[in-house]
Design brief:
The chain is an alpha/beta fold. It has twelve helices and eleven strands. The longest helix has 29 residues. The model has no long low-confidence stretch (mean pLDDT 94). It binds nicotinamide-adenine-dinucleotide (NAD).
Length: 370
């Protein structure tokens, strides 16, 4: 299976494969860069085999699933480096994936086994919550290592990062709407939110308070009901949310949603949401969106609120809510700079953000060497 030759491998410092026969743990930790500080990023627990279930023989399906996991962890960890650098954090970029269905195998024993692997990295990688992991699972991993953040309890615990992520998405939408539509507030701006889970639900709350018109979707009925309880929202089928005739499309479910099948149907003039890796192929779809006149707010800038919230916990520092909030609000200013550069240079926002992040990381690495 290619790692060094994978299209997602880009100067990663360390990739660790972890297995524990007793608990069924199969996991990968990718440390992309520690130039800006210890690598920080969530633990994604995902059933990569589910997409290949119909394949025969089953060992081929398993290989494909493992390839997907490698691709995911490499791309996500690099995204964390860029995200943390652009948010001005003293954190590098890392990520981990656990392969399997968390509902079936995500026991406290398995999480403790994974915690022991994290511990072996001696603080090179700090884990946090991501899709498929919960605060309780993080706490179980934390019994075997102190290199876990985003915990509910403890002297420096910062708790659930989702409200901070949602605030960052909200200010990103405001910044993009101001830039593209020339509107300084969101009253009557129509936003379509794909996925009303942890982040999406808080985002809907912000949007309704700001007077926006909100359309939502989700694949879980109880999540839709929770959003409906917040106020007047229109519900559409998950298959059509990207095609809603609206001002802003906010992907807050999983990645890969901006692809050749969906982009031609998008009617929004702004895309800004929490999901990681929204572009199926970066460098292809961000240019496509630009050419179609759609303003794409790079996902890792938009969703940095969560890691901004967690930074102090990694460094064992105490910060006030106001200090954290001020940092999250700065996401809007960073985006405005990128939007202006994109207009000036006639290049996609994603490419400009990547270059800025790479420059920051290279400068930090050079300063460290010196
Ligand atoms: P979550 O799992 O709580 O929410 C995702 C929601 O999307 C769920 O309600 C799920 O049912 C729904 N969903 C899944 N597939 C869907 C589909 N095809 N159509 C419509 N809805 C669908 O996750 P979250 O913590 O809210 O994170 C959302 C996204 O933001 C993820 O991509 C995550 O990686 C990213 N993110 C989250 C944070 C955070 O602080 N939680 C931080 C940074 C990035």
């Amino acid at each position: 299976m290619p790692v060094f030759d994978s299209r997602s491998f880009k100067d990663h410092e360390q990739v660790v494969f972890c297995a524990d026969a007793e608990t069924g743990l199969k996991a990968i930790i990718a440390v992309h860069s520690t130039a800006c500080g210890p690598a920080a990023g969530g633990i994604r627990f995902w059933d990569y085999a589910a997409a290949h279930k119909t394949m025969a023989p089953s060992d081929v399906a398993e290989t494909r699933a493992e390839q997907d996991a490698v691709y995911d962890v490499l791309r996500l960890s690099r995204g964390m480096s860029y995200k943390n650098a652009m948010a001005g954090l003293r954190l590098g970029g890392g990520k981990s994936v656990i392969i399997g269905n968390p509902k079936k195998i995500g026991t406290p024993d398995l999480m403790r086994a994974f915690g022991r692997y994290i511990d072996r990295l001696s603080g090179t990688y700090y884990a946090a919550e991501d899709v498929g992991t919960s605060p309780a699972m993080l706490a179980a991993a934390g019994e075997a290592t102190s290199f876990v953040s985003g915990l509910d309890d403890g002297e420096f615990a910062t708790g659930d990062p989702s409200p901070h992520t949602a605030l960052g998405v909200f200010v990103s939408i405001k910044s993009a709407v101001a830039h593209r539509l020339g509107k300084q507030d969101l009253s009557d701006v129509h936003v379509a939110v794909q996925g009303v889970g942890h982040v999406g639900l808080y985002l809907v709350e912000h949007l309704l308070k700001a007077g926006a018109k909100v359309t939502i979707t989700d694949i879980v009925a109880s999540n839709i009901e929770a959003a409906q309880a917040l106020g007047d929202v229109t519900v559409v089928d998950p298959k059509t949310i990207h095609a809603v005739d609206c001002d802003v499309f906010a992907p807050c479910a999983l990645g890969g949603g901006l692809n050749p099948h969906t982009i031609p149907d998008i009617k929004a003039s702004v895309i800004a949401g929490a999901a990681n890796n929204q572009l199926e192929h970066e460098g292809v779809q961000d240019e496509d969106l630009r050419k179609r006149g759609i303003l794409y707010a790079p996902d890792y800038l938009v969703n940095a609120g969560g890691i901004i919230s967690v930074e102090a916990e990694v460094h064992r520092e105490k910060v006030t809510d106001a200090e954290r909030e001020a940092k999250v609000l700065r996401i809007g200013d960073t985006l405005t700079k990128i939007f202006k550069s994109s207009d000036r240079e006639g290049r996609p926002t994603g490419a400009i953000a990547n270059e800025m992040a790479e420059d920051i990381i290279a400068a930090k690495a050079a300063a460290k060497k010196a």
